[in-house]
Amino acid sequence: MALAGVRVIELAGLAPAPFCGMILADFGARVIRIDRTKLSMTVDTQARGKQSVALNLKNPKGVAVLKRLCVQSDVVLEPYRKGVMEKMGLGPEDLLKENPCLIYARLTGYGQSGSYAKAAGHDINYLAMSGLLSMLGRSSEKPYAPLNLVADFAGGGLMCAFGIVLALLERSRSGQGQIIDASMVEGAAYVGSFMWKSRSLGLWNRPRGENLLDSGAPFYDTYRTSDGKYMAVGAIEPQFYQQFIQGLGLYDADLPAQMSVSDWPQLRQTFTRVFASKTQEEWSRVFDGTDACVTPVLSLDEVLSHPHNQARGSFFKDSQGEISPQPAPVLSRSPAEPCHSRDPFIGEHTRSVLKEYGFEQAQIEQLLSAGIVECKEAKARL
Ligand SMILES: C[C@H](CCC[C@@H](C)[C@H]1CC[C@H]2[C@@H]3[C@H](O)C[C@@H]4C[C@H](O)CC[C@]4(C)[C@H]3C[C@H](O)[C@]12C)C(=O)SCCNC(=O)CCNC(=O)[C@H](O)C(C)(C)COP(=O)(O)OP(=O)(O)OC[C@H]1O[C@@H](n2cnc3c(N)ncnc32)[C@H](O)[C@@H]1OP(=O)(O)O
């Protein structure tokens, strides 16, 4: 796999950093997550393929253990508020002094500088600060955050993974590590570059929810079917729009022009009425195999059995029966191989990881009995 041999220390976080770590693990990196002690369960739902070491960082000896792990690794991924790592003596200067090849990734909401750098926040706040939230939502309604996808995952976890891969690539030439300041505000804004760069085209001149791509246009929207499901329509180009109209059983001559914005409410009403006359399956049969750009809106449970997804193996069931998307993109020679077994218990790999990183058996036992580290090895099944 592409990242085989790369050792990552991931400090347990909420959502973006765990996703970043999972991407790296899916593509072959060895990801060791540092969990708190005295926890019975993790909130990391993105733990696939990781190992877990439980370590008390409120104890200086715990901090010393972490330092030893970090300086022997390729990447440190930390999701804390600005200053937390420095307070423990684990800031980038301290660690890079001992290991100049280290890649030190800091994944935060607002970045390492600026007046918001130390403020708490979540996806919706970062999205708001990126400018993008102001554009998201239906006409005449308030701004609406599309789950926590854009800042946490696209602008945060994924962008940070990209930064780490870039830094690894650069290190292969320079032999040097570096610090990655991954701000979710900036990551989200960067993902949204199209919104800034396409303003000159007039794509966003109208109020929120009344433009071509923000559900303003009736040919770029979703419609309810007779069985209470939905179809997604993205018939923008005239040649595809023609196929869409034809599929609905409508005639161009009876309808206002596609790009006549003042007629969009009337067109939407017509499309709504027609879509309500068949089930989702019936509409899928009508549009499958055409270029009308119409697809069923599938639920998370339905994606696995859709023939297209099935043909590509786009989703898989792990050993626990849980459905997950396959890692993307697909690399021809060194594709990702997501781990199919269960997520680690907290502290499951404490002993084995410490041993591998050069701790003596007696030291490990001391750390365990002092409660500085914890180990919950899985019981062997007879
Ligand atoms: C919208 C998303 C977030 C969605 C997440 C949800 C899925 C989950 C959120 C709450 C969860 C529920 C909850 O936990 C209750 C239940 C628990 C149960 O176990 C499971 C069910 C639950 C219902 C559970 C279910 C779900 O998991 C939840 C609903 C986001 O937007 S995530 C993005 C957030 N932002 C960032 O990541 C940006 C960067 N980080 C920050 O700004 C801050 O870290 C943040 C997030 C604001 C948190 O600030 P906080 O004050 O809490 O921490 P920090 O200032 O960063 O400092 C960390 C301190 O922790 C100490 N520490 C770290 N590791 C250890 C250790 N191993 N041992 C000891 N101590 C440790 C560290 O030293 C710091 O201590 P100090 O404060 O003393 O310096």
UniProtKB/TrEMBL annotation:
<dbReference type="InterPro" id="IPR044855">
    <property type="entry name" value="CoA-Trfase_III_dom3_sf"/>
</dbReference>
<dbReference type="GO" id="GO:0005739">
    <property type="term" value="C:mitochondrion"/>
</dbReference>
<keyword id="KW-0413">Isomerase</keyword>
<dbReference type="InterPro" id="IPR003673">
    <property type="entry name" value="CoA-Trfase_fam_III"/>
</dbReference>
<protein>
    <recommendedName>
        <fullName>Alpha-methylacyl-CoA racemase</fullName>
        <ecNumber>5.1.99.4</ecNumber>
    </recommendedName>
</protein>
<feature type="region of interest" description="Disordered">
    <location>
        <begin position="315"/>
        <end position="338"/>
    </location>
</feature>
<dbReference type="InterPro" id="IPR050509">
    <property type="entry name" value="CoA-transferase_III"/>
</dbReference>
<comment type="similarity">
    <text>Belongs to the CoA-transferase III family.</text>
</comment>
<comment type="function">
    <text>Catalyzes the interconversion of (R)- and (S)-stereoisomers of alpha-methyl-branched-chain fatty acyl-CoA esters. Acts only on coenzyme A thioesters, not on free fatty acids, and accepts as substrates a wide range of alpha-methylacyl-CoAs, including pristanoyl-CoA, trihydroxycoprostanoyl-CoA (an intermediate in bile acid synthesis), and arylpropionic acids like the anti-inflammatory drug ibuprofen (2-(4-isobutylphenyl)propionic acid) but neither 3-methyl-branched nor linear-chain acyl-CoAs.</text>
</comment>
<dbReference type="InterPro" id="IPR023606">
    <property type="entry name" value="CoA-Trfase_III_dom_1_sf"/>
</dbReference>
<comment type="pathway">
    <text>Lipid metabolism; bile acid biosynthesis.</text>
</comment>
<dbReference type="GO" id="GO:0008111">
    <property type="term" value="F:alpha-methylacyl-CoA racemase activity"/>
</dbReference>
<dbReference type="Pfam" id="PF02515">
    <property type="entry name" value="CoA_transf_3"/>
</dbReference>
<dbReference type="GO" id="GO:0008206">
    <property type="term" value="P:bile acid metabolic process"/>
</dbReference>
